Amino acid sequence: MQLTQHFQKSLSAIVALVIILSGGQASGLSFTKLTTGEIVNDGGYSRSVNLVDYDNDSDLDVFFVNQTGGNASAFLYRNDGGAIFTKVQGDPIVADSYAGDGSSWADIDNDGDLDCFVATWSNQNDYLYLNNGNGSFSKQLTGPLVSTPAYTDYCSWADYDIDGDVDLFVSVGFGDFKNLLYRNEGAGAFTRILTGPIVNDGLRAHGAAWGDYDRDGDPDLFVANILQDNSLFKNLGGGNFVKVTGSDPGIGVGFSERSLWSDFDNDRDLDLFVTNYQNQSNFLYLNVGDTTFTRVVSGIVPNDPGYWFSTTSGDVDNDGDIDLYVTQAFNTAGDRNKLYMNDGSGNFSAFAGDAIVTDSGWSISSSFGDLDRDGDLDLVLAKGFGETENNAVYFNDGNTNHWLEVRFSGNVSNRSGIGAKIAVFATIDGQPRWQFRETTSASGFGQNGPEAHFGMGDAAMADSVLVQWPSGRSTILTNVSVDVLLDIYECGTSDADSDGINDPCDNCPNTPNVTQTDTDGDQVGDACDFLAGDADGNGNITVSDAVYLINYIFNGGPTPSPILSGDADCSETVTISDAVYLITYIFSGGPAPCNW
Q1: What's the number of CA atoms in the CB half-sphere (13 Å) around residue 540?
Q2: Model confidence over 462-490: pLDDT tens digits?
Q3: Is residue 523 part of a domain?
Q4: The pLDDT value given to residue 517
Q5: Model confidence band, residue 227 (pLDDT cutoffs 50, 70, 90)
Q6: Rounded distance, CA 230 to CA 222, Å?
Q7: Would 375 disulfide with which of 173, 261, 403, 481, CB 3.0-4.6 Å?
Q8: Is residue 502 part of a domain?
Q9: Cα–Cα distance between 514 and 417 in angstroms, integer?
Q10: For residue 200, is pLDDT > 50?
């Protein structure tokens, strides 16, 4: 293990050096700016941008909230394919005029289409639009979501009480500074929560981000506060939260604007990034894995002062790690954005020489998504200099790396699959690695496309895809093809083996198994079960499996197939502890390998 770790660290150092010597330019990465169409020729002062498939035609549409002249209507552009966007006219969602700020989309009524909430500044009521399922929207006129005037800034959906529908957090950055939290009661009804630390924090809240940082199965909430301590609220379950004290993300003081959770170091937990304004540097916190964080103080990301306003993240070069994009605004007309390229270990270098970092102006919001469905992440910016600046779209020109995109549809969990965690295992550039994502709605002041996007490098397939739904259910797929958009249903309509049991609920979806017999109770049908601990795949657990694992870990021997067959202790990783676990089981009467 030490030799393997030493080799991986050495390889990471070499890769980082190559990137530095090349001026931070990722190999083969470039973007083409869209110059035609209304989407990039509508001037004004746009605030947030969301990439969503509102009409369920499998491509990403674009929604901008505006504040031109104090009150303005939103822009909604329908993606008609081929980089053609049609501006939607006449619908209530683009007819109302307000001081729009943040916006967030989710299927709030679990009817199979995305609905939209808009937070408004200037002590106005907020707006909620329900999707009618035919490409049109109905404006909601009653209920607490649309009858609570405040200086609201940011909003994001998450199922914080794990009851199968999404709830809503809205930050309040002026006035009484009382954040808003609404619990979804189902059937279109919401209750405003009036007690607890989230709604009584009393700080100047702006950006926030939901994420299960402690991996206990429910979403926690980070709130960025301007010139005050930032706030981290741990979800205790049952709809209860406690404000974390003594933790670095909770005591970082800056002119903090926005935040996001992302696994920057590929260790399968959520790290935290916070933007700071007023010529300050940003905050980056790495999750140690024991519910604590280490604040990163070296490198370019935390030592690059600017007027940083919004942020988004994604694997823009499809090399198997998450890169970071940060925008600037409200300083000068020459404000420029930054793209930090990740070397796979959470070390970053600045990307140079492309329009996404050389174009100037005020970028209020940013979102990544695969607009043209070619397997790489494109970029959309909400712009606002002088209240006359056009918004911007940049198409990723791509490279030879492979990719995998995953869409979620919940059943017991919320329909949008918000809060689902997905881990993908593959061998990339000769190195076995896990990648991890957690689905969110709005984050960083924008909303990325809803798909979980994975860069797969030179991997010809994903060995394992593991989904953990908010409900606690799991979905495991093995030998998954790359370069595809994969739909995963918690309980859906597809039935690949035609045995009358829908695939997401079928414990053996690719082999007919009408009886669903599951002798060992591991929720995987006997017809296609693999035996945890049977690393060599011979159907039995013997000392040869421990030897097989040791050879794999220390000598680069064959990878267990699927990888989870080598995970004897169900830690979701294959390490020397699994070999020790097997030896203890075989020779000392220790516990049997777990049931996947």
Answers
A1: 4
A2: 999 999 999 998 899 999 999 999 999 99
A3: no
A4: 73
A5: confident
A6: 8
A7: 403
A8: no
A9: 27
A10: yes
Give the total number of structural domains in the chain. 2
Q: In whole angstroms, how far apart are CA 199 and each of 20, 29, 193, 228, 353?
A: 45, 43, 7, 16, 44
| Domain at 361, CATH number | 2.130.10.130
> Which class for 324: exposed (0-12), middle (13-18), buried (19 or more C-beta within 10 A)?
buried
Task: Using pLDDT thresholds of 50, 70 and 90, give the confidence band for residue 525.
Answer: confident
Q: What angle do CA 35, 36, 40 make, to 5 degrees?
A: 70
Of the candidates 213, 187, 73, 204, the one whose C-alpha atom is nearest the C-alpha of residue 150 is: 204
Nearest to 458 by CA among 398, 507, 402: 402
The amino acid at 50: N
Question: In this model, does residue 527 exceed pLDDT 90?
Answer: no
Residue-wise burial string across 226-264, b where 16 or more C-beta atoms lie within 10 A, e elsewhere: bebbbbbbbbeeebebebbeebbbbebebbbbbbbbbbb
Q: pLDDT tens digit string along 374-392?
A: 999 999 999 999 999 999 9
- φ/ψ of 131, rounded to 5, equals -75, 125
Domain boundary among 396, 421, 437: 396
Report helix angle 543-555 to 2-21, nearest 10.
Answer: 30
Q: Per the domain annotation, does 345 fall within a domain?
A: yes
Global pTM exceeds 0.90: no
124 found inside a domain:
yes
End-to-end Cα separation, the chain, in angstroms: 25
CA distance 137 to 78: 14
CA 59/CA 369 separation, integer angstroms = 10
> What DSSP character marks residue 443?
B
| Nearest by Cα to 414 from 76, 168, 59, 53 | 168
Q: Are 324 and 297 in contact (CB under 8 A)?
A: no
Q: Pick from 153, 141, 130: which is nearest to 65 by CA?
A: 153
Residues 147/104, Cβ–Cβ less than 8 Å:
no
Instruction: Report how far Cα 19 is from the mean position of its chain's Cα atoms.
Output: 26
Mean pLDDT of 31-48: 95
- Given 359, 379, 396, the domain boundary residue is 396
Longest dimension (CA), the chain: 76
Q: What is the pLDDT of residue 492?
A: 57
- How many Å apart are CA 432 and CA 561, to the nearest integer? 12
E runs forming strands in 315-459 = 323-328, 338-342, 348-350, 363-369, 378-383, 389-390, 392-396, 402-409, 421-428, 431-438, 452-457
What is the DSSP pairing of strand 220-229 with strand 205-211?
antiparallel
Q: Are 220 and 211 in contact (CB under 8 A)?
A: yes
pLDDT at position 504, please?
66
What is residue 448's three-state secondary structure? coil
Over residues 444-456, the mean pLDDT reads 97
Report the DSSP pairing between strands 389-390 and 100-106.
unpaired
CATH code (residue 560): 1.10.1330.10
CB under 8 A, 24+ apart: contacts of 15-23: 15/343, 15/344, 16/343, 16/345, 16/347, 16/349, 19/341, 19/343, 19/349, 20/349, 23/352, 23/353
Question: What percent of the residues of the chain are helix, what percent strand, and what percent coil, each to the nearest 5?
Answer: 15, 40, 50
